[in-house]
């Protein structure tokens, strides 16, 4: 089970998906709060689809090539960036941090090794926590509530359990 | 290796188990078509296909697709390089449809060199996609779908490749990044120029352990050295390149008039060592603005004459040195 399928979080997601006003309110408050914290600590670029936790708390959007799938071929022998020789390669750090940071769950360490889809630029400058919660970061349409899920909830049939 | 209908002549050669040789054509910094025809004529009999570079090192050159359509006219198979630096997903997909219509069948997907060290450092970067996203988009088009899921009819069937550099840190992660490319659907891989055979052997051992050589055809990147200065420059100043001291000292010991000859010999020796490594399906010769060297290298490496794809019938047993797969 992914963390965003956890009971109260799933409940919050369904609530937000069915109450657009509440979501808008959270967006007004949540985005600046999230931006301030993440910009100061991690140099967040507000892509709206956060990968920090999957990359050892290193933001891949700070890579000059916006690579979300690992380091390019130009990493210098000392682990610095090809484009800005004075900076660390974000992916060099991300790899070692994600494999050695003590508090990261094992599931997040494995995320380094999966193929990430292309950036959805529709979500830029939106709150990624909210996107994670509403499922937009995973391709759920932002306007409409997730109808399949609502229908499944109305009749909690055996088929639902069988799927899992 | 999955047996699918060959997408191109290059693909046919791989499927027949031939030890493939590809080369590189750099388009000119002008609109001069004669340069392309000249280079194509030079490389046609010495290699099976040539990469057409896409504004390599972020220096403005003739479009790779335009140059590729010219080599198609010459009867020489192009592999177009597509970088994510200058175009977003709309432009890339549209260009790929155009390239297919012009007879291009091989695509090499790259992230692209950053423009900071190119000749237009003021330009805005795009990097809408990265190379792995690009590979999955081209494979999606092969299956008849645009990136947004809309249908393409008929689907452009490309032979899709990617690149990997085993000589850049984090070294432990490199084979896994190659695995990501395999998962995204890459069908062949070209590597960075190899001047450190030991590191490459180590890398290939991990790749073979992961079983990636059975999913993709891996071409080892090689290239001739022009002078000891070039060897030292590549060792010290080019990011993501490693040159063993063995080659640098060998070039330094050579008298000046024999530099080029010795550089070719070094390249041939590396090719011979590559043929012994399990999992290597061919070599990719990167002769940076020195195309004249390629026929000599291929001849000295004993890889001439090159087989023609239309003369191959059923898959043949792999020739000595090549790896079955």
Number of domains of chain A: 2
Low-confidence stretches of chain A: none
Q: Portion of residues in helices of chain B? A: 25-40%
Q: Determine the number of helices of chain B (DSSP H or I, runs of at least 4 residues).
A: 11
Please outline the helices and strands.
The complex is a heterodimer of chains A (about 160) and B (about 325).
Chain A: H1 7-18, H2 20-42, H3 90-100, H4 106-110, H5 128-134, H6 147-154, H7 158-163
Chain B: H1 9-15, E1 20-25, H2 33-44, E2 49-52, H3 64-73, E3 78-83, H4 89-101, E4 106-110, H5 131-142, E5 159-164, H6 174-184, E6 188-193, H7 197-209, E7 217-222, H8 228-236, H9 245-253, H10 259-276, E8 280-285, H11 293-300
Parallel strand pairs in B: 1-2, 1-8, 2-3, 3-4, 4-5, 5-6, 6-7, 7-8
Please, could you describe this protein's structure?
The complex is a heterodimer of chains A (164) and B (325). Chain A is an all-alpha fold and 164 residues long. Chain A has two domains: 1-47 and 126-164, no CATH class; 50-118, no CATH class. Chain A has helices at residues 7-18, 20-42, 90-100, 106-110, 128-134, 147-154, 158-163. The longest helix of chain A is centred in the N-terminal third of the chain and has 23 residues, at 20-42. Chain B is an alpha/beta fold and 325 residues long. Chain B has a single domain (19-301), classed as TIM Barrel, CATH 3.20.20.220. Chain B is built from eleven helices and eight strands. Chain B has an eight-stranded parallel beta barrel with strand order 1-2-3-4-5-6-7-8, surrounded by six helices. In chain B, strand 4, helix 5 (131-142) and strand 5 form a beta-alpha-beta unit. In chain B, helix 6 packs across helix 7 (197-209) and helix 10 crosses helix 11. Residues 316-325 of chain B have low confidence and may be disordered. At the A-B interface, helix 3 of A face helix 5 and helix 6 of B.
């Amino acid at each position: 089970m992914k963390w965003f399928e956890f009971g109260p979080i799933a409940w919050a997601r369904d609530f937000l998906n069915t109450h657009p006003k509440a979501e808008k309110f959270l967006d007004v408050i949540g985005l600046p709060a999230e931006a301030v914290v993440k910009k100061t600590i991690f140099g967040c670029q507000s892509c709206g689809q956060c990968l920090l936790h999957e990359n050892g708390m290193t933001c891949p959007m700070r890579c000059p090539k916006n690579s979300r799938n690992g380091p390019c071929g130009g990493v210098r022998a000392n682990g610095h960036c090809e484009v800005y020789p004075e900076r660390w390669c974000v992916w060099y750090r991300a790899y070692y941090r994600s494999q050695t940071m003590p508090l990261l769950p094992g599931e997040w360490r494995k995320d380094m090794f999966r193929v990430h889809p292309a950036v959805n630029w529709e979500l830029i400058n939106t709150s990624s926590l909210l996107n994670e919660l509403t499922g937009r970061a995973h391709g759920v349409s932002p306007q409409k509530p997730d109808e399949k899920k609502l229908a499944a909830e109305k009749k909690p049939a055996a088929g639902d359990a069988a799927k899992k | 290796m999955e047996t699918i209908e060959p997408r191109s002549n290059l693909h046919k050669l791989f499927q027949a188990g031939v030890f493939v040789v590809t080369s590189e054509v750099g388009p000119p910094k002008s609109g001069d078509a004669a340069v392309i025809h000249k280079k194509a004529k030079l490389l046609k009999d010495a290699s099976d296909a040539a990469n057409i570079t896409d504004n390599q090192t972020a220096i403005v050159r003739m479009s790779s697709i335009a140059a590729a359509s010219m080599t198609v006219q010459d009867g020489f198979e192009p592999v177009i390089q597509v970088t994510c630096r200058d175009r977003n997903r709309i432009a890339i997909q549209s260009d790929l449809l155009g390239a297919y219509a012009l007879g291009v069948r091989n695509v090499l997907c790259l992230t692209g060199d950053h423009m900071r060290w190119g000749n237009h450092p003021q330009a805005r970067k795009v990097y809408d996609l990265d190379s792995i996203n690009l590979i999955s988009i081209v494979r999606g088009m092969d299956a008849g779908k645009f990136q947004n899921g809309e249908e393409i009819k008929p689907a452009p069937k490309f032979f899709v490749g990617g690149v990997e550099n085993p000589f850049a840190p984090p070294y432990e992660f490199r084979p896994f990044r190659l695995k990501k490319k395999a998962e995204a659907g890459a069908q062949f891989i070209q590597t960075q120029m190899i001047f450190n055979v030991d590191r490459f052997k180590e890398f290939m051992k991990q790749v073979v352990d992961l079983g990636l050589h059975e999913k993709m055809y891996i071409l080892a990147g090689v290239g001739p050295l022009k002078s000891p200065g070039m060897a030292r420059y590549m060792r010290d100043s080019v990011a993501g390149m490693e040159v063993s001291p063995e080659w640098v000292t060998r070039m330094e010991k050579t008298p000046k008039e024999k530099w080029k000859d010795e550089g070719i010999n070094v390249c041939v020796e590396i090719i011979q060592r590559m043929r012994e490594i399990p999992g290597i399906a061919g070599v990719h010769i990167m002769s940076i603005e020195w195309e004249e060297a390629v026929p000599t290298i291929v001849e000295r490496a004993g890889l001439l004459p090159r087989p023609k794809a239309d003369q191959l019938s059923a898959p043949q047993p792999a020739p000595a040195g090549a790896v079955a797969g």
